[in-house]
Amino acid sequence: MVDHNQKLLQELLKKPGNNVCADCGSPEPDWASYNLGIFICMRCASIHRGMGAHISKVKHLKLDRWEDSQVQRMKEVGNVTAKNKYEERVPPCYRRPNRCDPQVLTEQWIRAKYEREEFCHPERQSYLSGTMEGYLMKRGKEDSRYQMRKFVLCESEDSLKYHVQENKQPKGILKLSELNVVFAPAKIGNMNSMQLTFTKDGSTRHIYVYHDEPEVINNWYTAIRCAQLHLLQVAFPSTPQSDLISRLPKDFAREGWLWKTGPRPSDAHRRRWFTLDNRKL
Predict the structure, then answer these.
(1) Domain range for 100
(2) pLDDT, tens digit, for every residue of 32-52?
(3) Which end is more exposed in the chain, N or C (fewer Cβ atoms within 10 Å of the end residue's Cβ)?
């Protein structure tokens, strides 16, 4: 039998904003963080639980017993009020996750909001500085083994460089303004991984990198997006920001193996990897 508090929670779910997950927007959330006062989905609830009860205290709306004070907290806050607090200063370049996005993006969004409170304290948003240096594990071109490489992002030079040896010239220099970056856990077999895609000599090239710390790889991803937005704002000062944001890197529309043949009837079919990116195959 449904008790009084569960009935109150179901009524609260009908209020604007409470009918979707506060973190990823999934419909019909069936969990809540009662100290934060938000309604969340099962996937996000597991991330909240992973942060520890000192940050977020999670309960199922129907399967757990609720105290009067906990329900009162949900009534006082709710998703809209919590968003106004914890998302007050989200940078325009920051990618807000939805329910289909990679785990690392969703987890770091949640941790940035409630654990690090980055969007309440802009000085904690290191990815906005236009520069970033650090080490990432990069896959080799020939042997596919991963080696530690130093990467240097510089917005003022429109460049992302990587070094084999720190004190020598960079092994590669990529133009930020022409770079696409996506998370690539399925390809690399690591949750904290990225694929950098660019064009060189008329051919599409890929660089695969990862880092053991999910926060680090997410910061690199965000730093690239933020630098790209700033470069677009300089190049197109009269264009609305919303239009420029739509030009930032997106996940590929589709990827997979296809059989391809050459122009001659005698050419054999060969298995090739295809990527559909921004109306380009």
Answers:
(1) 4-120
(2) 999 999 999 999 999 999 999
(3) N
